[in-house]
Specification:
single chain, 340 residues, alpha+beta, 6-stranded mixed beta sheet, 8 helices, 15 strands, 26% helix, globular
């Protein structure tokens, strides 16, 4: 039987046909990939909101049990102090009772007791999943000079005011939901729990200045002024918001000086960093106030997730009016808050 040569030649693809098929597949993948990435980001954002919801419920349960909200920290005079954070105080209400029961809060988190109770590197190195956003790319321990884990970072921080954080001379706080050495009662939230920020997202390993003694007592008018007039003291390119156990605002707080995701530029050796700034950290001085430019930042595009003091979770746009953002940052400012 003689084979039909024309039929045999049609059994294989031509090069042109193969290239067309590859091009179509490439186009389909190109169309599908953004949708997959968007779905993944939506899932991460939902998970982030759920973390904040759990923290909000923990705050409500803490208040129900103790009739106050936790202080941002209990500061102790002296540079060697290691003040515990509200996040540490909330552990029993976040299914962290086993960890909480093993902590000795009468000494610092790097004290030998608290290291021995959490081998090999201490309680400060523990990863607390609910305190970390799933979109955070730097979900990893901060290492000491010898390469050993020293601290674990955090993505959800306390509203500690607009600019002033703490004045040890008169024990005044910054007017936010939380303050050092201060346990606020529900009755103190004149603005209402639903109109007061509790916690907001921040980015781990934020470049920062701290312990700047000469920082001005008035907040900067805009972010461009920070680098020239508000920086000084100790500089670090990657240590802000890296200590979940530490009650100092540079690690576990934020201020409403600027709107969410505002870039606060500072140039070092030709590199532009987006920075935070504080003066003397809480507890280091009995006379010098603590001021802070600690901006709320998120890995979710165009917004930050927040939990209000009534436990509700909201996504707040980066474009929110600064007046509204600052009004949300006060517990008793008696401001009229526009819809946000």
């Amino acid at each position: 039987m003689t084979k039909n040569p024309s039929r045999s030649s049609r059994l294989a693809f031509t090069l042109v046909e193969l290239l067309v098929v590859i091009a179509i597949i490439g186009i389909l993948v190109g169309l599908l990939l953004p949708a997959v990435q968007a779905a993944r980001e939506a899932a991460r954002r939902m998970s982030c909101s759920n973390n904040l919801k759990q923290i909000g419920l923990a705050l409500q349960n803490y208040e129900s049990a103790l009739k106050t909200f936790p202080p941002s920290t209990v500061s102790i005079g002296g540079s060697a102090s290691q003040p515990w954070s509200a996040h540490a105080f909330l552990l029993p209400y976040l299914e962290g009772g086993n960890v909480h029961s093993r902590i000795d809060y009468n000494v610092g988190y790097h004290n030998g007791t608290n290291k021995a109770n959490f081998p090999p590197n201490g309680v400060a190195t523990l990863r607390v999943p609910v305190y970390l956003c799933p979109s955070e790319p730097n979900d990893q321990a901060r290492l000491d000079a010898n390469g050993n884990p020293e601290h674990y970072p955090i993505n959800y921080c306390l509203n500690v005011g607009s600019y002033l954080i703490y004045n040890p001379s008169n024990r005044a706080d910054g007017g936010g939901a939380f303050g050092p050495n201060r346990s606020n009662k529900v009755s103190g939230f004149i603005d209402g729990l639903s109109n007061t920020l509790g916690l907001s997202e921040v980015k781990t390993y934020t470049p920062r200045f701290h312990d700047h003694v000469g920082i001005p007592s008035t907040s900067p008018a805009n972010a461009a002024l920070v680098s020239s007039g508000y920086t000084g003291g100790a500089w670090s390119i990657n240590s802000g918001h890296t200590e979940w156990v530490c009650g100092r605002a540079i690690h576990t707080g934020f201020t409403t000086t600027f709107a969410p995701n505002t870039k606060v530029p500072h140039i070092v050796s030709g590199v532009v960093y987006d920075i935070d700034v504080t003066s003397n950290r809480e507890g280091r001085s009995q006379t010098d106030p603590t001021y802070g430019i600690i901006t709320s930042r998120s890995h979710h595009t165009g917004l930050v997730n927040v939990v209000l003091m009534d436990g509700s979770v909201r996504g707040v746009a980066s474009s929110i009016a600064i007046e509204t953002w600052r009004a949300l940052g006060t517990r008793d400012g008696a401001e009229v808050i526009d819809e946000f």
